[in-house]
Every structure is written in structure tokens, then in C-alpha cells.
Amino acid sequence: MLENKNKIAKEEKAVLIGLVHKEQTETQVHEYLDELAFLADTAGAVAIKRFTQKLAHPDSKTFIGKGKLEEIKKYCLEKSVSILIFDDELSGAQINNIEKATEVKAIDRSDLILDIFARRAKTAQAKAQVELAQYQYILPRLRGMWKHLERLGGGIGTRGPGETEIETDRRIVRDKISLLRKRLAEIDKQAFTQRKDRGEFIRVALVGYTNVGKSTLMTLLSKSDVFAENKLFATLDTTTRKVVFETTPFLLSDTVGFIRKLPHHLVESFKSTLDEVREADILMHVVDISHPAYEEQIGVVNKTLQEINAFDKPTITIFNKMDLYEKNTFDEWLEPGVKKEILEDLRERWDRETNGNSVFISAIEKRNLDLLRKTILQKVREIYRVRYPYKTEFLY
Ligand SMILES: Nc1nc2c(ncn2[C@@H]2O[C@H](COP(=O)(O)OP(=O)(O)OP(=O)(O)O)[C@@H](O)[C@H]2O)c(=O)[nH]1
Ligand SMILES: [Mg+2]
């Protein structure tokens, strides 16, 4: 059977390939490829070069032009590159044609993300969710993958697969998918019962783009250790802790980060992990303000929240990594007055856009955490008041 796990070997040399569409600027594409490089790095590969091509539409057969593929092939041969990573989703036929033309393994962004998720998955639930997404990804690409194995001489023999063999594989994959769905439904039922047992506590969920500092903040606010690191998707499973601010208890959850072009199947199969977000009373949307594309990241998060029906909730927007933002933005010779003015403008602007529900912090330097705690407490109490008007022991 086809294996889709750990496609990338450690320290494997990779090149990144991106298309520059009509509506995109070159800067944007470079930012996208920066992110792709970070993803590749998280998976253990080393991206040593980037290729971009301006095309109005991707080529239906080879995604990029033949000439470009030639150039890439030559480069890969010279530098012993063994994997091509495309920033956009490829069809099975495209993967197949590209590999034929370059004689190098090709994967796309979705596949790379699935690979990272597969490595990161620890619990039975996360593992089943990733596996489901992987099989859904494979299903429409089976034919291409057969050809791929055939070329590598792997397991199929010389004849190549006939329609029956591909049909058999499709059936196996479909069976796997329905089995995983059943298993996840079981896990879901248990999780639902567990969540119900949590009683009437208000639930607050940390959400945001990947690597913005959600887990770091979770650790600070709940005083318990939650795994954080400078890699993408450090967190896959939801962690929930009971937190008490003054006399008010609530449940705080750390959740999986979002990213642009998150594979559709992944969002779908992670539905139950994302239940925590959907069922939350309050969202804390953490933003990495030091990231050059932070505004686009806010947009991606909001769009994903909409997709999972969790958008219209009371939200506090937390602009994190102010330390890094200031380091990147301000020269040391800049007058303190000017600096203050720029920061004021930034604050005013986002205060307007979030209706006064934003806080600027640095989790690492523990800056402004008191204000953050106060803001959260206020929001939590507001909801307790509305929901349980006769229950005052949590409030005073
Ligand atoms: N400079 C700076 N770095 C920070 C700050 N907060 C978090 N970090 C770093 O950012 C990286 C990511 O932090 P995490 O807490 O793992 O981020 P996350 O949002 O949980 O990431 P995922 O679980 O991967 O989605 C870590 O290396 C943190 O040390 C901050 O205020 N300033
Ligand atoms: Mg995390």
C-alpha cells in the first residue's frame, strides 16, 4: 500500500518553486516563499534555492514552463538537490510530469504541511485526523503516485499498474477513509462528554496564525508548561487549563495554529480539535506584530474562523512580540519622541479596528501582561454576568 509518511529526509536539499500570478507582487511571492522555507525547515529539509516564474495561469500539465523545468533540472543535478517543493497545490498528473521532466521528487505545499502534521501528531485523535487528511489528499492523485513508484522501481514490477490495480487501491483508500471517520466519531463522542463535564465555566480559546506565541502566552497565563518552539505547528492538540484571575475562574485553551492555504482536508479532519474554538465563549486572537505580513495573517485567521463557524465571538486581539517589532522597526538613533508617536499611531489604528479590544504585549519580556489579564478578566466577567445573573461568587 502507498505510504505517505515522512516524505522528507533529514537535511535533504530542496529547492522552492513559486508562481507569480497577475494579482501578486514580487514582494508578496518572496514572503510566501519565506514561509515555505520555514515550513521546509520545520520538516527537516534545507531550502538552498528559490525559483519563481511569472505566468498568468499555471500550466495544466507541468505547472510551470518547460524551459523553467529544464533550468531547475540542471541546477538540481549540479547541487544534488533531491526534492522540489511547490508553493501551490499540484494535481497528480502535474506531479508526475514534473518528476518525469526533472528526475527529482516533487511535492506541494499541502503535502509538506501534511508531512509536518504527521510528525507532530502525538495523541490518537491527532494521528487519526492527520491520517484521514493524508488519505483524502492521496485519493485523487493515485494514478500519478503509481507511476511515481513505477519509475522508482518500487514494489510494482515492470509492467506498471493496470486499471484494476488502481481501482483496487482506490477502494483500499476509501475503506481507510471510512474506517478513520468512524474511529474519529468515537473519539469525538468521548471528547464531547468530557467537555460537558466542565460545567458552567466560561471558555476562552487562544487562536492565531502559527508561531505567533500562543503556547508561550498559555504558559504565562496558566502558569503551567506548554510546549513552545520556533517552528511551525508546534501545537497540534488542544490543551485546556483552569485559570483563576482574582476570584474568577475560567477555562483557557491553546489550539493549533492556522496558516495560509491550509489544506482543505486538514481543516475538515481537524474539525473536532477545532470544536474547542467553535465552542469557546471568548477568543484571544494572538498576532505576531513583528512579522512583515502580520496583516495578511490576521485576514487568514479570520477567514479560517469563518470557515469553521467561529467568527462572531467576543474577541480580544493580542499584538504579541512588540520587543521584536521595535527592534526591527526602529533604528537606535531614532528620537524617542518619534518612536512614541509611531507606537501611538499603531495603537490607535488597531484600537479603532478592534473596537477598543486590543492589547499590545511582549510575552517574552512579560510586557503589559497585567493589562492583558485585566482585559481578559473584564470580558470573562461580562459573560458570567449575562449568563448567570444570580451567581455572583465568581465575580467578587
Ligand atoms: N521575540 C519574541 N519572541 C516570542 C514572543 N512570544 C513568543 N515568542 C517566540 O515565538 C516562537 C513561537 O512561540 P509559540 O508559543 O510556540 O507559538 P505558537 O503560536 O504556539 O505556535 P504554533 O503552536 O506552532 O502554532 C517561540 O520561539 C517563542 O519563544 C515575544 O513576545 N517576543
Ligand atoms: Mg503552540
Description:
This protein is an alpha/beta fold and 396 residues long. It is built from 14 helices and ten strands. The protein has helices at 26-43, 66-79, 92-102, 109-120, 124-138, 142-152, 163-196, 214-222, 264-269, 275-278, 294-307, 322-329, 336-353, 369-387, and strands at 13-20, 46-54, 83-86, 105-108, 203-208, 239-245, 248-254, 282-288, 315-320, 358-360. It starts with 12 loop residues before the first strand and ends in a 9-residue tail after the last helix. The strands form two sheets. A six-stranded mixed β-sheet has the order 6-7-5-8-9-10, sandwiched between helices. A four-stranded parallel β-sheet has the order 2-1-3-4, with helices on both faces. The protein is 49% helix and 15% strand. Magnesium ion (MG) binds next to helix 8.
Give the distance, in angstroms, between the N- and C-terminal Cα atoms. 61 Å
Mind telling me the C-alpha Rg? 24 Å
Structural class: alpha/beta
Q: Based on DSSP secondary structure assignment, what is the total number of beta strands?
A: 10
Proportion of residues in helical segments:
40-55%
Biggest sheet strand order reads 6-7-5-8-9-10
Count of helix runs: 14
Largest sheet: 6 strands, mixed
Low-confidence stretches: 151-159
Shape: globular
User: Mean of residue pLDDT?
Assistant: 88
Order of helices and strands: EHEHEHEHHHHEHEEHHEHEHHEH
Each distinct ligand: guanosine-5'-triphosphate, magnesium ion
The fraction of residues assigned to DSSP E strands is 15-25%
